[in-house]
Amino acid sequence: MHLYSPMxxxxxxxxxxxxxxxMTSVTEAGGFVSLGxxxxxxxxxxxxxxxxxxxxxxxxxxxxxxxxxxxxALEAGINSASLLTQGVGAGAESAKAVSLxxxxxxxxxxxxxxxxYAKGGLAKTxxxxxxxxxxxxxxxxxxxxxxxxxxxSLPTPILEAGVWMDYSxxxxxxxxxxxxxxxxxxxxLTMGVSFGF
Length: 197
Fold this sequence. Notes:
By secondary structure, this protein is mainly beta. Helices cover 9% and strands 64% of the residues. The relative contact order is 0.20.
């Protein structure tokens, strides 16, 4: 019996440590709206040879709606990120990456009112140049979205609310107006708020 007691102690400790992390918030359910502001995007691959993240002003953000049932949530929204063409000095022009994204999120308990989540989905993405009504599409195509983050729940007498932060990556498979393939990735750190209804 004494030979197995250390193993039992290790297993008991592992259960006590990892069970709360694996438990999901099964009581959460209902619709929600999310609003967020993003950092300057970090680009990779071929798209980084054409554009760079615009760090001088508004860096875009996200607006989304979704439905949550237990640990799972389905979310659909619009993402945007401010870019600059890879010109020199005054030759750099403003551009924007805009995407319609549908993602599936999986939440799990992390610490008290804080939940962690992982997400993955599909998106239709456009990179447009110019401003206002004169914006022209330069590249468009599909993207695969991956990411994860933390959400802090703020129950109020009126509605459920939360603040969140997540890091997301879109893996791009775009084509320009001549039909040439443009691959790459866009990474963005976003912070925002969510409201349940």
